[in-house]
Amino acid sequence: MTVAAPSRIRTLAPLVASQIAAGEVVERPASVVKELVENAIDAGATRIEVELEQGGVELVRVGDNGSGISREDLPLALAPHATSKVASLEDLDRIATLGFRGEALASIASVSRMTIRSRTAETNEAFELHSEGELRQPVQPAASPVGTTVSVRNLFFNTPARRKFLKTIATEQGRCADTLTAIALAHPLLGFSLRTDGKTVFDVPFNQTPKQRVLALLGSELEPEMLSVESDQHDSRGVSLWGLVGTPAIARATNKGQHVFVNGRPVRDRTVQHAIMQAYRGLIEPSRFPTAVLMLEMSPEAVDVNVHPTKAEVRFRDSSLVHSVVYHAISRALRAADLTPTFFASGQNSPEVKHPTAILPSPFQHPVAPPTPTQTQAFVEYLQRFTPGTDQLTFPLRAAGASNQATREILHEIVQPPPFPAPSEPVGEVGEVFAPRRIDRVLQVHNSFVVTQDEHGVVIVDQHALHERVMFEALLARVGQGNLESQSLLTPALIDASADQLARLEEMKALLERIGVEAEPAGPRSIAVRAFPSFLFSRNVDPIDFMRDLFALTDENEEGAETPSLQASRGPDSNSSVPRRSSDERLLRDVLDMMACKAAIKAGDHLSDLELDELLRLREAVERSSNCPHGRPTTVRLTIKELEKLFGRS
User: Fold this and answer.
1) How many CB atoms lie within 10 A of CB 183?
2) Would you give the DSSP letter of residue 209?
3) Tens digit of each residue's pLDDT (9 = 90 or more) over 24-50
4) Concatenated DSSP letters for 131-164?
5) Which residues does 636 contact at the CB level (< 8 Å), separation at least 6?
6) Looking at the domain covering 211-337, what would its CATH class be?
7) For the chain, what are the domain ranges?
8) What 3 state SS string does 8-31 have?
9) Which CATH number fits domain 14-208: 3.30.70.100, 3.30.565.10, 3.40.50.2000, 1.10.3110.10?
10) For the chain, what is the total number of helices (H) and then of strands (E)?
11) Residue 92 in contact with residue 180, Cβ under 8 Å?
12) 424 pLDDT band (50/70/90 cuts)?
């Protein structure tokens, strides 16, 4: 076997070095658009025009009315590591410009045919510089208004291997449009236009408000679906936030609807993405992503933008602070909005569901005082006092559906907080059950849906989805105070288990204790359940089926089955630390969700009038009652206007 002699160390040729740098900075035409537009913004331009041919592969032209480049500086503009934005090492700790590295133009020029034409306000004559790969022509006089126009032709003409990896013209054009849209969203005071193959894609004027710019670029039809988000803590905590977030109705299958900006720079940041997903937890399905446009402002010293070649990622000095500001601001906006979907009939046979953002009076709100902290604590204490009746102490359980008594128990004993009385009414002892107020005109349809009315139209409630949310919030509050009550089984329930499940049983001990389950190995292939959550008895939940589902849930968690919120918080290349939320806590919420689903009233359960009233009252007692813990809606509203459309009266 012949061993090759080690290669000698040599200095790379300038063109090779430039093309290696270009490989980091210039991935596709959209990279060129980003670098040139950011340079125009740094030059003080108020109007930036972008023109593309063949998706930017044949031409990317960016013109601006900024300060321009002098004749003497034009050759330096294409020199590697030449910049007007950074002069010392200390400047890297307080970067306030979009560009600063000094290799963008040089890298682009090394893989294209480039022309720069520029004029400063101090001169009456413009100058231009042509380059082709590593070749530079002398600076020549030209005619041009004040500002700079950079034309990049035949991208990757001298690196055909790179050119082959480009996608279709439509795909590259779309990425260029997305890039310019993101920059334009971040700078509403500047005007932008985009033309592709002679056609105008968009043209937005300067001096727009942030909201006007968002709606102009993302679509004015989204305005009813967008909620304002604001948190001005710049003086006290160093971070301020403005933005618009979408209602759950316009959540998407991908995160392309999320735009995050830090000091005017479009970025991808897992800290912010995780905070967004956590704020929407339980309001959208796990496979969906919220729509959001968030603009964060902070001191340049508080954020490091020099962690990625294309400046697409940042590192926060205090990521926990940023996470907290984003999470709480979005949560406040969602809590303040009526998220009940409204059923709109776009045609008599093609209805669709959307969310109104106006806060409409609730059809179920009683004229009583809001809960006080004392009354809220009474709710928690009431949950702690619950114990099952003596007829529930035996095992096996009663057959499911044998009686409606379990439904009444779960509504009136498990999760019923003491009703919040009017100021003139005395508050009873903790645990005392007040007779719920009657709500007029309530109808249960097919033992599955609850129908009532308000001044806006008809309100339809999915009884299982709503009660599942109520149960989940009650369980979450209860485990915050201590372990759930458990009931010992006279005869242990035996479950077949794999060796892996037996091994993980000890790891799950803390979780099982919190939810009121006592289980231990009972031989080489089985597990014995000796105690079970008390409230699950009242709903005839089989311990064997429950434990099987619990292990399936932990299997998914162990295998790393990721929801969008977890995807946003993971990744080996992450440059942002997400405030750690232990997998045990995430698993606990998933388990409580499963328990709530099993214990909640089901489609097909008949409810008495008082039970219907109580269920609707509980809707006002918990947060996020518009959606079940899985994110599906619990309630929809059919307005009078839409009813009239359906019956041809408008």
Assistant:
1) 24
2) -
3) 568 899 999 999 999 999 899 999 999
4) EETTEEPPPEEE---SEEEEEEESTTTT-HHHHH
5) 340, 341, 342, 343, 353, 459, 460
6) alpha beta
7) 14-208, 211-337, 344-479+601-646, 487-562+582-598
8) CCCCCCHHHHHHHHHHHHCCCHHH
9) 3.30.565.10
10) 21, 25
11) no
12) very low
* Token pair recorded at residue 26: 């210039």
Q: Which position has the higher pLDDT, 476 or 314?
A: 476
- φ, ψ of residue 261 to 5 degrees: the values are -130, 135
Decide: pTM greater than 0.70.
no
Q: Which of 453-457, 477-481, 543-547, 552-556 has the lowest average pLDDT?
A: 552-556
Looking at per-residue pLDDT, the higher value among 622 and 446 belongs to: 446
Instruction: Find out if CATH 3.40.630.30 is the number for domain 344-479+601-646.
Output: no
* Mean pLDDT of the 54-73 span: 94
| pLDDT class of 312 with cuts at 50, 70, 90 | low
**CB half-sphere exposure, 233, CA atoms < 13 A:** 16
Helix orientation angle between 373-385 and 463-479, rounded to the nearest 10 degrees: 90
- Token pair 């907080």 is found at 417
Buried b (16+ CB within 10 A) or exposed e, 370-395: ebeeebeebbbebbeebebeeebeeb
**pLDDT at 419 > cutoff 50:** no
CA dihedral 99, 101, 106, 109 (to 10 degrees): -40
Please tell me the class of the 487-562+582-598 domain: alpha beta
Cβ pair 326, 241 in contact under 8 A = yes
CA distance 271 to 284: 19
Instruction: List, for residues 211-229, the tens digit of each pLDDT value.
Output: 999 999 998 888 988 999 9
